[in-house]
Structures are given as C-alpha cells and as structure tokens.
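Supplementary Methods S3. Input chains for the assembly prediction are listed below.
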Amino acid sequence: MSFILLLGLTAATLTTIAFIPQVIKTWKTKSADDLSLGMYSIFCTGVLLWLIYGILIGDIPVIAANTVTLILALTILFFKFFYKE
Amino acid sequence: MSFILLLGLTAATLTTIAFIPQVIKTWKTKSADDLSLGMYSIFCTGVLLWLIYGILIGDIPVIAANTVTLILALTILFFKFFYKE
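Predicted structure tokens for the full assembly:
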C-alpha cells in the first residue's frame, strides 16, 4: 500500500472515529447544552450528502466512512434533543 | 457542472461550515464543558492528515475544505482549553 493511500485512510479513520469520544461523553454526562444544534444539524445533512455522493460514484471508502460518521453524528444530534436542559 | 460534482461540493461545504455555529456558540457562552476533548483532538489530527493528503495529491477542493475545517476545529479545541471550568 502506498504512503499516500495509507495517509488518506488514516485521515478518514480519524475524522470518523473522532465522534466516538463525544458520543460516550454525552451519554455518560447526560449533558449536551454546550453542543451546537446548528453544527450537528448542518453536519448530519452534509454527511448524508457525502453518503449519497459516495453511492452515486460507487466509492466504498466514502460510503463506509460516511455511514459510520452519520450514525455517530445522528446519535449526538439525538442526545442534543434528548438531554435538553 | 454535473449533478454529482455539485452534490459533492455541497456536501464538502456543509461539513466544513457546520463548525461555524459551534465556534460562535462556544465563544458567546464561554462554556465548553460538554465538548469532548478527545473528539476535537482526534478530529484536528485527522483533518491535518487530510490537508497533508490533499497537498500531496494536489487536490484543491480537499486542501481548501480541510484548511477551513482545521482552522474552525482548532478554534473549538482552543476554546475547550481556554474556557475550562
């Protein structure tokens, strides 16, 4: 595997799994007041479009990364509504 | 411009500008307790790798989107340290 491909895959993995600590933190603290509803609304919409884009161009890494990111970001968005102060 | 290209550009724009409402919210409330330090640490590292990847493959959209995202995510990470309880 080339260095550049490995770099891209590492980048994609990090920006995807990054949301896991936020999901765990919010689930544990039951507090989401500081999280921006606007951020997660726009972000989820953008990731959904990335997913559709990946499906249309038939790119497995784009589909895989954005499916996982969408699940994590939607979970945080759900927490934002669920743990309202 | 093709529909698929427009879809990809819209997706990239949304997942980039999504962080603006979080920057504004955290700056206004001066509260970042609910934000995950782990998330923003991993995310900033990932976006930095995306940026290096974009430079190495010479892809302007990847460079542009990740430069803006890195600035916004680093600002939130800075706020997380600065507005510590």
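The mean pLDDT of chain A is 95. Residues 60-82 of chain A form the longest helix (23 residues).
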